[in-house]
Specification:
By secondary structure, this protein is of the alpha+beta class. It contains 25 helices and 26 strands. Helix 16 crosses helix 17 and helix 18 packs parallel to helix 20. The chain is rod-shaped.
């Protein structure tokens, strides 16, 4: 065996020392690095701490002296279970490395998290004799993870409990996520929703709208404005959804998916539609009202200008509808109006529009007409349909209507102009006697302007008292004696000349001016009659007509009493003539009539037989005289029906002890018949036309001679 020389041995020892020095230095460097970056602890096999570096002391806030000799239970936070530590000790006790995350508690009570690696050192028998634990502080990471978890939990709870429907779709529109609220939205169809395409559920009329909306979000790469669209379920239910869309971007800034937050606004939309319907429709007939009609007319006028087509506007009034309300009540009137609306619609096409402006006024829009002949046929069809008898509560009603028509572009190029001229044409029909229709023509506008002028001048005439009174004498048929006179208003305009009553009285009634005019006539007639008596003429009654408006004034009786007191005329020399239309409201009219009679004033029913009175209830009316309408007297000498009516009126009057006067006596043959049948008094051109005050005085003087 070869032995080493001293020199060789010295060399080997030198190399060994050098290597050992290098290893020691490397171990020192490793320890330094570990001390600077990690928490380092060494324990014996029982877990008693034998070494703790500065990092350990810093994070645990214990001094080294406080840690040495303790086990790790000094740091136990109570977070981990016994099974957690049992599994850890089983691993390292078997000589295996253990890795895990542990939450510890520092000396000051604060908590911190460490990522831990425990390395066991074993002896020759394989038993651990010490453990080295290397830990890294992960408190910030765990805090971020917890915050993220809490945030995720919060948004999950929000999404799962939100009444809104939250959906994630890809750029193609396929559902990737749906919040549980989709069960509420779609009910039995919800199971099919999650695996389907958004557009599959969108109402077919809204699909293009939704497609463009999604494209806009993807193109703009930012949240969009709200969009409302409809979805249709398999059961046929239609929902309105209000939707807010947001893009989800990838790392490159491209749109990856879309988040849609959808709210069911079906109930709100239904309320909006209800409110809109109420705002733009008539509640009685459910027809469009004036606002909606005018809006539609303006749109159609725009289209007609654009495409050079024609359209027509019709104004329709139900003739004498007020008499229906007055006679049978507004409930019956409402039923009739609803039926009228129905009948008009039946006469129109799908694109035509009928609206109710109020009362018995209707407007009709006929777009895309071929010409006036087509409008003429429709108007005639409406007229005939409305004339068909209508039964309400077992009573038959016969109606008629008046219509005015304006055609675009011949009669106007703007909506307001067409409406105005159709209205003018309607008034022309009314003035002509109603029950018909008329197309607008320039002469109608001239007459309408004349009417406006008359209304303005009528107001001035009231202020300046341009009126005067003529008197039509009444005679006793048997003796030819003057027994009374009817006061009739006349209007001599300083510039327009004499204006017939049939022109200005209807205007006065429509405008309400008939009330002050009627009161003026009553006062002047009483003053004149009292003046005649003061001049020594034999007393006789002067008759004054009361309009319906004047009759139903709340203070009518007081006004009559006041005028009689002011003028000094005794009540028995005043007679008030009322039309039969007043008796449409018998319950209201009778007390008023009785109060007037209680004053001592006489009451006469004018135009008897043409209005509402029936022979069966005349006996209940507090009246003194019946005036047979002139229409029955006109042909009484030749017409058997007129003769029968006059005889019946005279018989009833004689039975009830009522006076009878015949109006419109113009022929000797008429006078002979009336005299033979026992009629007491007469009035008409056979005796005298209405004459001025001075001529009445001449007649009175002649009677005394």
């Amino acid at each position: 065996m070869k032995t080493l020389t001293d020199h060789q041995l010295e060399y080997l020892l030198s190399k060994t020392d050098e290597k050992l020095t290098r290893v020691v230095k490397e171990l020192a460097d490793i320890k330094y690095a570990l001390d600077q970056s990690s928490i380092l602890a060494i324990t014996d096999h029982r877990g008693i701490i034998m070494h703790a570096n500065d990092q350990f002391c810093a994070i645990s806030k214990y001094t080294r002296e406080e840690l040495i000799g303790q086990d790790h239970r000094i740091l136990n936070s109570g977070y981990h279970s016994k099974e957690f530590f049992k599994e850890m000790w089983a691993t390292i006790g078997a000589g295996q490395v253990w890795r895990g995350e542990i939450r510890n508690r520092a000396k000051d009570g604060s908590f911190y998290w460490v990522d831990t690696t425990i390395v066991p050192f074993v002896n020759e028998q394989g038993k651990p004799y010490q453990y080295v634990s290397i830990r890294n502080d992960i408190s910030l990471r765990k805090k971020a993870e917890e915050e993220a978890r809490q945030s995720e939990e919060k948004y999950r709870v929000i999404a799962e409990n939100c009444s809104d429907l939250i959906a994630i779709i890809d750029c193609e529109g396929t559902f990737l996520y749906l919040s549980p609220s989709h069960q509420t939205f779609f009910g039995d169809d919800a199971g099919e929703l999650g695996t389907s395409h958004l557009l599959q559920w969108v109402h077919e009329e809204d699909r293009e709208l939704v497609t463009n909306y999604l494209k806009e979000i993807c193109a703009a790469r930012k949240a969009s404005s709200l969009l409302e669209f409809r979805v249709r379920t398999n059961s046929g239910r239609v929902l309105y959804l209000e939707t807010k869309g947001n893009p989800i971007l990838d790392s490159c800034g491209d749109v990856k998916n879309l988040v849609l937050v959808m709210r069911d606004v079906t109930e709100r939309k239904q309320w909006e539609q209800t409110i809109f319907h109420l705002a733009y429709h008539d509640t009685l007939t459910d027809l469009p009202n004036r606002r909606l009609f005018v809006d539609r007319l303006r749109k159609e006028v725009y289209q007609a200008k654009r495409f050079q087509s024609q359209l027509a506007v019709m104004f329709l009034d139900v003739d004498r509808f007020k008499q229906i309300n007055d006679s049978w009540g507004h409930e019956v009137g409402d039923v009739i109006l609803a039926e009228i609306a129905k009948r008009i619609k039946q006469c129109l096409g799908e694109n035509d529009v009928v609206a109710r402006l109020g009362g018995d006024e209707f407007t009709i829009l006929l777009p895309h007409i071929s010409g006036r002949d087509q409008v003429d046929q429709i108007a005639q069809r409406i007229r005939e349909r409305l004339e068909e008898p209508l039964e309400v509560n077992g009573r038959q009603h016969n109606l008629s209507c008046s219509m005015g028509i304006a055609v675009f572009p011949a009669d106007g190029r703007e909506a307001d102009e067409l409406l105005k001229r159709a209205d003018m044409a309607l008034y022309f029909v009314k003035e002509r006697g109603r029950n018909g229709f008329e197309f607008f023509h320039p002469s109608i506008e001239e007459k309408s302007l004349e009417r406006i002028l008359l209304e303005n001048e009528l107001r001035k005439a009231m202020e300046h008292e341009h009126f005067h009174i003529d008197y039509q004498p009444k005679y006793e048929l048997l003796t030819g004696k003057l027994v009374g006179a009817e006061a009739l208003v006349r209007w001599n305009h300083p510039e327009l000349g004499r204006i017939p009553p049939n022109k200005f009285i209807p205007i006065a009634e429509e405008t309400g001016l008939i009330v002050p005019i009627g009161e003026w006539i009553l006062r002047r007639a009483c003053e004149q009659n009292r003046a005649w008596q003061a001049e020594g003429y034999a007393p006789f009654r002067v008759s004054v007509n009361l309009s319906v408006r004047q009759f139903f004034q709340p203070d009518l009786v007081e006004r009559v009493r006041e005028i009689l007191e002011d003028t000094g005329l005794e009540p028995q020399w005043l007679e008030l003539e009322i039309t039969e239309s007043i008796f449409a409201e018998t319950d209201n009219a009778v007390p008023i009539l009785q109060s007037i009679r209680d004053l001592g004033v006489h009451i006469s029913i004018d135009d008897f037989g043409t209005g509402y009175s029936s022979f069966s209830y005349v006996k209940h009316l507090p009246v003194d005289t019946i005036k047979i309408d002139a229409s029955f007297i006109r042909d009484v000498h030749t017409n058997k029906e007129s003769q029968a009516i006059v005889r019946a009126i005279l018989t009833i009057a004689q039975t009830l002890h009522l006076n009878v006067i015949a109006e419109g006596v113009e022929r000797e043959e008429q006078l002979a018949f009336l005299h033979a049948e026992g009629c007491r008094e007469g009035q008409g051109y056979l005796f005298s036309k209405p004459i001025p005050r001075q001529e009445i005085e001449t007649l009175l003087k002649a009677a005394e001679a």
